[in-house]
Write a structure and sequence with these properties.
Integrin_alpha_N, six-stranded antiparallel β-sheet, about 5% helix, Papain-like_cys_pep_sf, disordered N terminus, Tachylectin-2, Chain A, four-stranded antiparallel β-sheet, endopeptidase fold (from Nostoc punctiforme), 2 domains, 3 helices, mainly beta, about 475 residues
């Protein structure tokens, strides 16, 4: 998983951007209880089994809002969701260990690493003999806050401010306490490569691309790392002035070229068009200019279109519902096709009738490295097909429905796309609602009942999006 950094931001600004409560100038005396057995908590991993870094971070973030919408209170004498509500209980929860460890026993399931080896889901703390009670503390490392690696984003269950907090912390901890050392859980595993759906600037977070009422293409780069409450979209980042995308239908975003920057794919007239991302070479860093590849033929009958890494090879594949209502997958052939053209002919035709589907999106919903399907059916219910490439015959990616939100009504949604807006490796849904508001539904697979990925709205984005022609 790519380590995310705030390039060019000072520590003071980083603190202001992510601190919940007031950062202390010296080490907290946190206090903690004794190791205790735990109950099961919803997750994609099993207790005391290998767990991905992205799941550790997602589980840690969960406690920031799990207490009636707010952070879980600090209390070494109480437990929440089966884990003690102190610093080491919090780490045990995130690592999904079989008991709620304290700082004395955490070294039994972890090992020392060097500062330069720190990755998301590792910890920094005072661990081992003599660190019981107020003598020890531990913080989950999320990512470096600056290039100099003098400050990092940590998530901790802290005595001050008295609850779960995510904030910038000077390395190794407040007050420069050199007893704080980096550790790694023995069963943590690196997450699969992220599917670069909608990641226009290659920072690991999904960005929003849209066409306005006048046909101009514009974008909102993801602001999760610097915005209040991690709201992903706060202001327009770029706009292709004078452009006219009014005749482009079914616009989708995904990394077709495999360079880490999301490209655009759409239907223009009767042709399929691909706009390769040129952020690194275009004037002013503008991501999109002219058409890179045009596919002639009659694509005008396409009902739905989306792009994601369905095959898990790092290149975005094309998934569409054709004029006859069939679901068709065009695997990316950039490595073998003439001139590196991404698509040549259909690879799989999925059974069933998809003609009634109102919206279709694809991205990695369950963080296994393969693009999954999310769709709204004719009755307005949201449902999903998890990718089955590793277990199906002929590596066919979509074979059967995995989940469905019964009784939901998404029929009023104007536009719909799927991307990793929160940057945790689990794709979220972004939708323009019937009233013109833009909503982000954060993926809650690890914490929602039954592992259903989507529940209520997580963020409402300011502005009126009713005139937007499409979002990707």
């Amino acid at each position: 998983m790519k380590t995310r950094r705030w390039v060019g931001l000072g520590i003071a600004f980083a603190l202001a951007a992510v601190t919940v409560g007031t950062a202390q100038a010296a080490e907290d005396k946190q206090g903690q209880g004794e190791p205790t057995p735990v109950a099961a908590v919803a997750a994609s991993s099993a207790v005391d089994q290998p767990i991905s870094r992205s799941e550790v971070i997602t589980r840690a973030h969960h406690w920031l809002t799990a207490w009636n919408g707010g952070p879980v209170p600090y209390d070494q004498g109480r437990s929440f969701e089966g884990y003690r509500q102190d610093c080491s209980g919090f780490v045990s929860m995130a690592w999904r260990t079989g008991i709620a460890h304290n700082t004395v026993s955490l070294p039994n399931v972890s090992h020392r690493i060097a500062k330069g080896d720190l990755k998301p889901g590792d910890v920094i703390g005072t661990l081992g003999p003599g660190t019981g009670g107020d003598n020890g503390h531990v913080v989950i490392f999320e990512n470096w806050a600056n290039d100099a690696q003098t400050s990092y984003i940590g998530i901790e269950q802290a005595g001050s401010p008295g609850h779960t907090v995510r904030r910038a912390i000077p390395y190794p901890y407040f007050g420069g306490d050199t007893r704080y050392l980096p550790w790694r859980y023995n069963k943590i595993v690196d997450s699969p490569p992220a599917d670069r759906v909608s990641d226009v600037n290659s920072d690991g977070f999904g960005d929003l691309v849209a066409v306005d009422a006048n046909g101009e293409l514009f974008g909102y780069n993801n602001a999760s790392l610097v915005s209040e409450n991690r709201v992903p979209f706060t202001s327009e980042t770029w706009r292709v002035r004078g452009s006219n995308w009014s005749d482009v239908k079914h616009l989708a975003s995904g990394d077709v070229t495999g360079d880490g920057f999301a490209d655009l794919v759409g239907v223009q007239g009767s042709s399929l068009v691909v706009y390769a991302n040129g952020s690194l070479v275009n004037p002013g860093g503008m991501p999109f200019g002219g058409v890179t590849w045009t596919y002639q033929g009659d694509w005008s009958g396409v009902r739905q279109l989306t792009v994601s890494d369905v095959t898990g090879d790092g290149f975005g594949d094309l998934v569409l519902v054709d004029a006859g209502g069939a679901l068709v997958v065009y695997a990316n052939g950039s490595k073998v096709n003439p001139q590196g053209r991404p698509f040549s002919s259909e690879t799989w035709r999925i059974g069933g009738n998809w003609s009634g589907v109102q919206h279709l999106g694809s991205a990695d919903i369950n963080r296994d490295g393969f693009g999954d399907l999310v769709a709204v059916d004719a009755n307005g219910e949201l449902f999903g097909y998890n990718n089955a490439s590793l277990v199906s015959g002929d590596r066919k990616p979509f074979t059967s429905e995995t989940w469905r939100i019964r009784g939901g009504n998404w029929s009023g949604v104007r536009h719909f796309t799927v991307m990793d807006a929160s940057g945790d490796g689990y794709a979220d849904v972004v939708a323009v609602e019937a009233d013109g508001s833009l909503s982000v539904y954060s993926n809650g697979s690890l914490v929602n009942p039954g592992g259903v990925p989507f529940g209520g709205v997580t963020w409402k984005i300011k502005g009126n999006w009713s005139g937007v022609r499409t979002v990707a």
